[in-house]
Amino acid sequence: MYQNILFEVKEHIAFVTINRPEKLNALNHQTMLELKDVFTKIKNDDEIYVVIITGAGEKAFVAGADIAELNKLDAVSGREFAERGQEVFNLIENLGKPVIAAVNGYALGGGSELAWACHFRIASENAVFGQPEIDLGIIPGYGGTQRLTRLVGKTKAMELILTGRRFTAKEAYEMGVVNKVVPQSELMKEAEELAKVLASKPQIAIRMAIKAVNMAYETTLSDGLHLEATLFGICCGTEDFKEGTSAFLEKRKPVFKNK
């Protein structure tokens, strides 16, 4: 079905694996097209609740963009290149379903930017992050200057982007950009356990929560609070809300129908 990614669905969880281990899972044009296609399908599939994305092999999540393709860009094609990548990562961030990045090695350049676009990041102990674009005479183009700054703050983002230095999973965790660091042998198990927890929740409320939290960085406090109240009201009109509150009062486990 795809040349450069693997895709399967089990128990409402989609597994997306970037499958170019011989290239350290670098994001070439074909891979980006396939990511756009598969995440569009996931967005439109009501039976998929959660996504786990990872890289094939044990060395890399995504080691960056394809440098051979980058080398051919000029001012016009460079902007178009960045906008195409941003479109894919915006799709992931605004999917309305939790996306877990299982970072299993190098996550450099576009690999880090892919991780920043996800809602959760679980890293193996050998994971390495970085935005090294400065050493190629460019800047991050798939959202790195914006999402990393929102995650770590302006001061730290300036340091990481202007120096291009790599940082470990431990440092990423300490900076608050990684939810958990685990041995590589436990990475997918940990990601699946989180995915199962998320899949068990009422999915309309999950979708509303993602939208509200994402908007916190895009708007004023007053506008954000207005959106929160609106989305809260939508949740109150669902069958899941009635079931959740009734189950709480009746001291039983809720059975959500995602309606």
UniProtKB/TrEMBL annotation:
Protein name: Enoyl-CoA hydratase
Chain segments annotated as coiled-coil in the UniProt record: none
SUPFAM superfamilies the UniProt entry points to: ClpP/crotonase (SSF52096)
Family: Belongs to the enoyl-CoA hydratase/isomerase family.
Keyword Manganese applies: no
Single GO biological process annotation from the record: fatty acid beta-oxidation
Statement: the UniProt record of this protein carries the keyword Lyase: yes
Recorded GO MF terms: hydro-lyase activity
Lineage, broadest ranks: Bacteria, Pseudomonadati, Candidatus Kryptoniota, Candidatus Chryseopegocella
InterPro entries found in the cross-reference section: ClpP/crotonase-like_dom_sf, Enoyl-CoA_hydra/iso, Enoyl-CoA_hydra_C
Keywords, in A-Z order: Lyase
Organism: Candidatus Chryseopegocella kryptomonas
